[in-house]
Amino acid sequence: MFQAQCRQVFEFTEIDEIYPALLNLRRPTLPFNAKVTHDHLRPLQKLAQDLKAGAQALENAYKLGTGYDDLAVVLLEPSDKADTHCFDDMLNASMALKAVDSSIRHAFNGHRSIQNTIILDIRAFRSDSIRRTQGASDKLEADELAYTAFEQILCNLKPDVILVCQCQTNTNEVGSRFARQACSSIDEATDITVLRLPRTQHESVMVKSFHPMYLEYMREAPNDSATKAVLREYLFDAGFIIASNALAGRSITGFGLHNLKACARDGPAFIATPQGVRISYLWTSGSDIASTELVEALKTLGISSKDENTARLDRIFSGLRIRSDRGSGFGNDNAVEREAFRKDDILERIGPIPKLPQGIIPLCGALD
Question: I need a surface site. Which of 51, 179, 208, 263 has the fewest CB within 10 A?
């Protein structure tokens, strides 16, 4: 029973089942012994001096980086307006930050928002407009300074959960090993692993997502479709919902996450059969894995499918569950948004997606 309570199952067969299924997985995860802090941000002051960042850029980075100390959301770089606009104007002009805010509020049912969640740019003070003015050597040198500060900030913070929403720092030209680790991709979205913070004994749960602007950029791709656009937004929300569960020491199981990721990237699966082709949102199902009986038999032989990462996650989740089960609350924090919140279903905004064909579609020359 205890194990069942620690895991939530996510499955779907049709696209209109995804939104309500994700709603059922949401957890407000009110902080227990978490506090709003900005103490971890001290390295930003030296970085601002080294990169000659202005006072407005530093103020905006501080405001974004202030929040409950149990969760950090990692983005790539600040808005081009971060140097010149006040915080509220910068937020209102940034599609990326508005998308993050909406997904945070959705995942935590309105109990958290961008106003009380730590948002860190892995390349602080390195907006696209600034980087485009620099030569290759100067750009890489300044980037490395930002990566070093980012590493120091996370080591100071020691969050329970890190949600990575950037996909550009795992390249050969990035010298920082930590910056390469704190990177994701659409192929890794919803993956969950353990990240040991350098020079500490602290291990954080790292949830992989992707940059929110990927939602917009892909609309211009030649092979994009309304179906993929809907699935991408569900996949982005899923990362935040996984993070909210992780804070309470709970994981999400089932084939739903794998199928959602595959469909958001490639669209529905075309599954070949001797009679023809079947089109499905299920790239993977229970028939594709070993039976429970076989898994148990392998365990008796000393052959286990549990890898080191899974064992470390189980240990961390156990500690987070114990803490979460003691009780939770915001205390006297009147700044917390308490009103329940859910995003509108993108499927309703885009319009109905045609149902996939049922059964087998015969093909010329299909095998007998």
Answer: 51
Whole-structure pTM over 0.85, yes or no? yes
Three state DSSP letters for the chain: CHHHHHEEECCCCCHHHHHHHHHHHCCCCCCCCCCEECHHHCHHHHHHHHHCCCHHHHHHHHHHCCEEEEEEEEECCCCCCCCCCCHHHHHHHCHHHHHHHHHHHHHCCCCCCCCCEEEEECCCCCCHHHHCCCCHHHHHHHHHHHHHHHHHHHHHHCCCEEEECCCCCCCCCCCCHHHHHCCCCCCCCCCEEEEECCCCCCEEEEEECCCCCHHHHHHHCCCCCHHHHHHHHHHHHHHHHHHHHHHCCCEEECCHHHHHHHHHHHCCEEEEECCEEEEECCCCCHHHCCCHHHHHHHHHCCCCCCCHHHHHHHHHHHHHHHHHHCCCCCCCCCCCCCCCCCCCCHHHHHCCCCCCCCCCEECCCCCC
pLDDT band at 174 (very low <50, low <70, confident <90, very high): very high
pLDDT of residue 302: 59
